[in-house]
Target: AraC family transcriptional regulator
Amino acid sequence: MSNPSPVLSTIIFVFTLQAILLSGLLLAKRPRSQSNVFLALVVFFFALMALNIALVNVLISYDIFYVFRYVQLELLFGIGPALYFYTRSITDQGFRFSKKDWVHFLPVALEIVFYRTSIYRLGADGMYDDVPHPFTSIYLAEQWFGILSITVYTIFSLRRLYRHHRWLQDHYSNIEDRSLRWLTLPVIVYSGFWIGWMLLTEIDRFVFDRTLREYYFLPTFVGLAVVTCWIGFRGYMRSHLQVDIKQPEDSKTQVNPPNAEQLQRLNELMKSQRPYLDSDLDLSRLSELLGLNPRQVSALINQSFGQNFYEYINDHRVEAFKERMSREDRDRLTLLGHAYECGFKSKSTFNHVFKKATGQTPGEYAKAQKNKSE
Model:
């Protein structure tokens, strides 16, 4: 066990208590949504783990560490299901948590029972003995199964986030307010944390005889507490956003293959009406202008240009920006002002899309055009 550190323990306490407060605010928010409930559970489970570590150091300071094994609660088997059902709730508006879904949380109940047994207490304490206790192997097996559970559910969660992002790009030209990319990194961090933690502790135990523990134990959980607090705060703030995301069309609907006449209508529409200048343009609106089914328009863009809706529309916006940079009155607006006039909704998206399409930043392109005209 690492030596107690008042400073690091205090930092962990501060961030974990804030995270627990945020989980309570998410549960109390009205109207209550199932996505907020599951996010509150995710934040609470991780905060609880970090809080336990801080508690360890307090008990060590008072030389009563033996009390900890009677109160410790690491709900590893609850993290994965809570994370998965959170991502499912925010990516599928039609999803409703049902009675049969409770089976995913059954291991949590078994885990709580396990932590109240002598098998857990003796097995966990036995890790720090020169000769491990016979129950230690059972304790480690439970821990590794918990890590496996988190990893499996994380894979399914990331898969849902990826599919959701791809669906958004097929239906919207601006996805900043709808994208869940902010959640991807914390999900990966959460999963990677436990795998890295278990591997590091085992290497330290068998190779370095626990001599590295002072360098990684508390700092690692400080990082966990900070990330947990951040995701709780970010999730709480985003829960205030009411974003209208229309559900996908029925994939079983029969759609006729795109034809030359439809492609001509699309090209003429983009030239004459320039609908891409509308920052809120989506697939449904473009389909209305063309008088076609949204799935027909999506297939038309995919097959004719090898792009999704997001890429297709933003390429037109890039061309509109380049056309503006060739004008003599280009200095009447800033580069971002021109971007907004072309239909972009944020500076970050504009910079990313433009660099991807041209290989240059907007500033570099504008400077080159200005030098060319002088």
